[in-house]
Write a structure and sequence with these properties.
Largest sheet: 4 strands, mixed
Oligomer: single chain
Shape: globular
Radius of gyration: 18 Å
Structural class: alpha+beta
Distance between the termini: 26 Å
Number of strands: 8
Strand order of the largest sheet: 6-5-7-8
Helix content: 40-55%
């Protein structure tokens, strides 16, 4: 997880413990930041992460601002069971035969639980075409900026860049860690340090993630849409990319590298590792 990374299309990010929050002096963006924190709460089902959010609300903002988030005795009132959503999404990511099939199953799930016309629009996106572009990006990054042999896992991180026009979007990036721990439910092994793999071209340009976020961001189903569809597509795309990219680029001299994909400071899925 990269907590201080930016690129030319991202506004400055404020680093606080395990959470990344867009900084702003523009009061007109207050609503967007409240939405950001609410979604950050939503994408993390672990108490460890949610306690961080309470700290942010209490320290960075005043009590009135925290009240706007409906924080009450350590809880934000949400109507969805995110643990069930995570389990379903993870199951589809790991079992679907291809990206399109998996995304259609996830869209069926969204439609069943939160009917909305936006799901039909998302079905029209070119999932397979985007994955092919992402495959080419990944192979180019790994071949031109290979990780050192001590990198034992890749992290494909979902984050919310603030674009130059001030709009929040969804993006995916690549990093690597020397400290992978499959039993660490917090994912802290992926936190950036001096030994991390951080290629210059680590930011992918996923049109599907951008479009999903754009289409759902102003709807009443944004919560379930971002969680299930962004995590689902990132997981499915990463699984397929790692199956298609030449293994000599993925492994180098190593016999195995593990793979994880998920929200920065939120839930993540450990995929099958890559082995020679």
């Amino acid at each position: 997880m990269s907590y201080n990374s930016t690129n030319g299309n991202c506004a400055a990010l404020h680093q606080t413990n395990h959470l990344r929050i867009p900084t702003t002096n523009n009061q007109t963006q207050a609503r967007d930041i409240r939405l950001f924190v609410t979604r950050s709460w939503m994408i993390s089902s672990t108490q460890h992460r949610r306690e961080d959010l309470l700290l942010i609300a209490a320290v960075i903002w005043n009590a009135d601002y925290a009240d706007d988030l409906n924080i009450n005795r350590g809880k934000i009132n949400m109507s969805f069971d995110f643990e069930k959503m995570f389990d379903y999404t993870k199951n589809i990511v790991t079992s679907a035969p291809n990206v399109r099939s998996g995304m259609f199953q996830l869209l069926d799930y969204c439609e069943t639980n939160s009917p909305n016309p936006v799901w039909a629009n998302i079905r029209q996106l070119d999932f397979e075409g985007d994955v092919e572009r992402l495959r080419a990006w990944l192979e180019k990054v790994l071949s031109s900026e290979p990780p050192t042999e001590k990198i034992n896992a890749f992290w494909f991180g979902l984050f919310n860049p603030v674009l130059e026009n001030g709009e929040v979007s969804a993006g995916l990036y690549l990093s690597g860690s020397t400290k992978f721990d499959p039993d660490d439910e917090t994912g802290d092994w992926a936190v950036e340090d001096d030994d991390s793999y951080l290629p210059e071209a680590r930011y992918a340009n996923s049109q599907v993630l951008k479009e999903i976020y754009r289409l759902i961001s102003k709807t009443e189903v944004a919560n379930i849409g971002e969680y299930v569809l962004c995590l689902g597509f990132a997981g499915l795309a990463t699984k397929v990319m790692c199956q298609l990219v030449n293994r000599k680029f993925l492994l180098g001299e190593r016999k195995k590298r593990d793979i994880a994909v998920g929200f920065d400071s939120g839930d993540f899925i450990i995929l099958d590792g890559i082995e020679k």
